Each structure stands twice: as C-alpha cells, then as structure tokens.
Amino acid sequence: MAASVDLSVDFAGLTLRNPLVAASGTCGWGEELERIEGFSNGLLGAIVLKSATLEPRLGNPTPRIVETAGGAGLINSIGLENPGVEKVVRDYLPRLADAPTVVIANAAGTLVDDYAATAERLCSSPVVRAIEVNISCPNVKRGGMLFGTDPDAAASVIAAVRGVTDKPVIAKLTPNVSDIGAIARACVSAGANALSVTNTFPALAIDVRTRRPLIAANYGGLSGPAIKPLALMKVHETYRAVGAAGVPILGGGGIVSGSDMLEFILAGATACFVGTFLLREASGCSRLLEELASALAAQGARGVSDLVGELRLHQ
Amino acid sequence: MRRAIAENQGAGVSPAPILDEAATVAGRTAIRADTVELSLRSPRIAAAARPGQFVDVLLPGPGFGYRVAEGEEAWRDLPRLRRPFLIRRPFSIYRAHASDRGADRDTIDLLVKVVGVGTRALAQLEVGAGVKVLGPLGNGFSLPPAGAPAALVAGGCGWASLAMLARELRRRGHPTYAFIGAATVEALPVATCEAKARPALFRDELPEACVTSDELESLGVTVALAAEAGGRVYGGLVTDLLEKFLRGEHGRGAHVYACGPWGMLRRVADLAERSGAPCQVALEERMGCGIGVCNSCVVEVFLPSGEVGHKKLCADGPVLDAAEVNWDQNRG
C-alpha cells in the first residue's frame, strides 16, 4: 500500500525526491553524516549546510550544548562557528559536486551587506541549488535573530540576497515573534521563494547547585520534541499568512517520526527538516520515510501535496 | 593572539565507516557507589575499536521507532514508554575483548559514572536490555615506537580511556607504568589490593605506593596509585608520581598518555614538556553528535601557523598532542 505513495515534492521550483531535509547545523558540510552506516544523503530530499559568514568565526565558549526538558529538549549555543565563506566555497562545496541530493547553502551575517556578499559567493557554486538565509540565529549578539524579529529588517536582508542570485531564496524565520505571519509576508514581498520555520526557541537551563546557566553563553536555542507543538503552531500561522500565495514552507521542530512529519505537512509544510533527530539517530531517516509513506497511505493520499495544509480546523 | 579556524578535519579524516550497532547488555558490575562497568555485546564495534576511541550510546524510546504491539496493553509498558534521554551519551571504550584471549570476544566494556539522567538510565540497565551503539568514534592514541616505555596517567574515571591502551602496550611488549589518582582511595576506578612484592621502581623511587591493582599487575603493568586524602596509597596528587617517575631511571625515553580533569592534564603536559617526553592527552567536553557536525565539543589549539583555532574533540580528538593544546583557555 505504502509503495504507491509518491513522496516527491516540488519545493520552490526544486524537485525533492522526498520531503525529508537535513537542517542547517546538523549535517555539517554535507559529508560527515555519510560515514554513518545506514545513512546516506541520497535518502534525503535535500540537505541544508551549516551557516557560512563572510569572515571566519570561532563561535561561543564551551559548554555549548545541554540536554533538558526531561529528555525531550536540547539547548545549543554554537555561535555560528564556521571557516568563512571563501573556504566553504573553495574547499567544501566542490566535494559535494556528485552529492545524491539537493544541496542548499545557508548564509548568516551581521550587516545586510554581509548577507548579500556571503549569499552571492555561495550561489556562485554550481553545487548550491538554493540559499537559506539565517535571519534567526538566537546565539549571536549582533545580526542573526535581530533581523528576523522586525518585518522591515527581515525584508531588507531578503531583498539584498534576492538582488545577488536567481536561485531560490529561503528565509529561515525565528519563532521569537508575536506575529510570524507579518515577518513571512515581508520576506515574500522582498523576494523570498520559500520560508523555513522555525529556528530554535531562545531558552535557558540552570544548574541549581552553582546557580549558573548550563550553557557558557548563558542562553541558547531549544530544539527537540519539546518544541514540536510550538513549531507546529508557527508553521500553521505562516501557512495562513502566505500559503494561499503558494509559498512553500520548510517546516520542522522536534520531528522524530513519520507521523510527526505528517503533522507538519497538515499544518502547512511542503517539506520537513530534522535536526536534533540527526544528532540522535541519523540512521533512522529511512524509518521516518517508511512511516510517512504509511501515514500518507492511511489517509488515502497519493502524494505529499494532497495533504499540505489540509488541517481541518474546528469551526 | 591571532585566531583562525582549523581545517575541517571531521570530514573525511578517516575513511572507516561508523557503525550503528544494535547491542545488548551482557553484564553490569557496580564498581563504586556511583559507577558501574557496563558490558555490551557489540561484536563489530568490539572488533574495530582501537585504544582511546569512544562510543555514543542511545536508549531506544517511544516515538523513536518503539511501537506498541497489537493487543499489547500500553499502560503495562509505561516504564518502557518513558523516553529516558534524547541524544546519545559518549563513553570511552574501556575494554574491547576482541583482542583478549579467553574473554567474551564480542563485547565492549564501558565505565558509566552517574552524573545525570542519561548516565543514570544507562547505569540501571538490566542484562539483556537493548541499546544502540555508534562507533568506534574518535582518533584514538598513537602507539610509541617499538620498545619505548609508556607512562599512563589517569585522574579518576579518566582511566576508562587508558585501560585499553595499557593492554595494547603490554601486548606489544612496551614497559608500561600506570599512575592512577583520585580524591580518595574509594574513588579510585580500579579494584585495589596489597602489593605482594614491590617492583624495583617503587622501592627506589616511589616507596609510598604500596597498594596496587591485581588486574593490571597480571598484565605486567607496573601500577602506582594516589589519593589526595591519603590512605593505603600515595597521599597526594597523581602528577607527583609522574614527576618522580620522569626524573628517575625508568622514565627515560618514556611516552606519556593522560586522561583526567583539565588541571591534572595541564600539569601532566607541563611535566612532560620539561622532560622532553612526547605526551598525548584524551580531553573531555560536553558533546552533541559525536561525529563532527554540531561543533559542540571544541577546544582551543595552536595551529601549525601559530594561530589559535578549534578542534572538535569528537572527530579530530579526543586524543590531542599535549603540545598543541592551548592550556590557558577558559574551561567552564
């Protein structure tokens, strides 16, 4: 029964073999997970590479990660550590020339011009099929999330990136706003082809013995099953804002099963990203896709697109 | 100080595949109030493991592939349905029996010290329980040239990453000395016993150390134990033992291997440098993925260019050359 379900999706003009996408920051520069038995980039619809910035960054002090929320959540504060866009384009991207999946790069920055220059350099590589713009990193003091919390600032970054490439532009939004729909509309008006919803939720974990935060940078971003209901709400709000205009959403937050993926699809996502799940069990991606195919078949759907945004709200 | 980013050595540094093996608990022995020795039947990882490498252990849980079977009463399974923890926990491979004659060749042993919810859940596993083991991970120790003596320096559970090395060194015929320290005798990670006949090393150079470990001496490892609180072992820091050893005749030409708290490692690195001894250290940092994608477990190192950069302990380590570590970095 599941075999007759078509998992391929059209996402902002890209054909993905299935809607499962590796989230930025959890699949490195595209090669690292491939060493794990049972995992292959070819299992995924797309991979989104780690954020690159114009200049190299060493990131935040350690510890940078802590598990929380009774084994349901993970807080991280890496601080956009990366070797700078030049090295990424020169040394890392060419290694993905034969990658058996769609490669999406990710640009971050402090100033609007940084974003544009970084995105332009990334998009100069034929390996890169689309550019995700990180206007939502909670773990840097300047830039990052600040751009994603104001519609005008978000639009200025997206417009600048739009100006340097013809490839699909995906705005990665922060959940840390009261009206994500307004940010989404601003990004689309500025030229975004798709939206990625959401980045991590700003969070704090405390060691009561020492009365200190468990993360060296004090605050971090929460991911994992703990945020799934919150992320679903943000995806749904975004879908209500821009779904009718046909803008696809890459949705995720705490996905650990095919059933979770279907929830995001029903809420309005065309494709789903997994991040924390990859840190837990990258070899489980094929299971997620089998579960999704079964769940779609159980709904009588022939493909993913039949159910995107098909949530039935109570009247 | 100028700073730069190190090469991304996590990608493609070792072509060896990383196994994700379904393993079962083959044995569990409490060795201290807060520490158990967990034996996992994990034949492929046991065969592939090298000294100094580690594994990342996962407890399968609900929503992660666990399904309630048809007719099964879910409420009776509530304890099983509780998700114990989210991401894997890293442990040094304490022993891999593939290279031991007579032992259960298919198993690896881990020292699990309870420090939080994840380690507690693992320490409470019953024999027969299923886990998933990702490994072998990390670079492991480089062995010294043939015949060179080796000094292994451990602080507490740091011994877990050195024990397999001790066996390998003895198998290759290296004179091997182990210096193991803890706050108290009770906190030492090895079972202790009275030394029957003291080797010359201790008569001449370390007369205070009069308690040893049967298991290690049977391998031909010369052992000296230290406890800051004193007792039946040397009363002081384990690095005092190393200092005396490196000054003495037996320490000439020795290669030093160490694992333990940052302060201890810093002192070991200093002593080794002063006596010109090559020194490798196995470092610890809170870890995320275990394979080099999340950039959680970084430490500051001096790059060949002289600049300060980062290495990821999971993929570029956990073993680093003591001379490349920036020992002045802030460790929270």
Walk me through what this model shows.
The complex is a heterodimer of chains A (315) and B (332). Chain A has helices spanning 85-92, 112-123, 145-148, 151-162, 180-189, 228-242, 258-267, 276-281, 285-298, and strands at residues 9-11, 14-16, 20-22, 46-52, 65-68, 73-76, 102-107, 130-134, 169-172, 194-197, 201-203, 206-207, 212-213, 220-223, 249-252, 271-274. By secondary structure, chain A is an alpha/beta fold. Chain A has a single domain, classed as TIM Barrel, CATH 3.20.20.70. In chain A, the strands form four sheets. An eight-stranded parallel beta barrel of chain A has the order 3-4-7-8-9-10-15-16, surrounded by five helices. In chain A, strands 5-6-14-11 form a four-stranded antiparallel sheet, with no helix packed on it. In chain A, strand 15 (249-252), helix 7 (258-267) and strand 16 form a beta-alpha-beta unit. In chain A, helix 5 (180-189) packs across helix 6, helix 6 (228-242) packs parallel to helix 7 and helix 7 (258-267) crosses helix 9. The longest helix of chain A is centred in the last third of the chain and has 15 residues, at 228-242. The two termini of chain A are 33 Å apart. By secondary structure, chain B is an alpha/beta fold. Chain B folds into two domains: 19-137, Translation factors (Elongation Factor Tu (Ef-tu), domain 3); 150-324, Nucleotide-binding domain of ferredoxin-NADP reductase (FNR) module (Rossmann fold, 3-Layer(aba) Sandwich). Chain B is 18% helix and 28% strand. Chain B is built from eight helices and 18 strands. Chain B has helices spanning 43-48, 78-81, 117-123, 163-171, 200-204, 214-218, 238-247, 262-274, and strands spanning 19-32, 35-41, 54-58, 89-92, 95-96, 107-113, 130-137, 150-155, 176-182, 193-194, 211-212, 222-227, 234-235, 255-259, 279-282, 298-302, 308-312, 319-321. In chain B, the strands form four sheets. Chain B has a seven-stranded antiparallel sheet with strand order 4-3-7-1-2-6-5. In chain B, strands 13-12-9-8-14-15-18 form a seven-stranded mixed sheet, with helices on both faces. A two-stranded antiparallel sheet of chain B has the order 10-11. In chain B, helix 4 links the parallel strand 8 (150-155) and strand 9. The longest helix of chain B is centred in the C-terminal third of the chain and has 13 residues, at 262-274. At the A-B interface, strand 5, strand 6, helix 1 and helix 8 of A face loops of B.
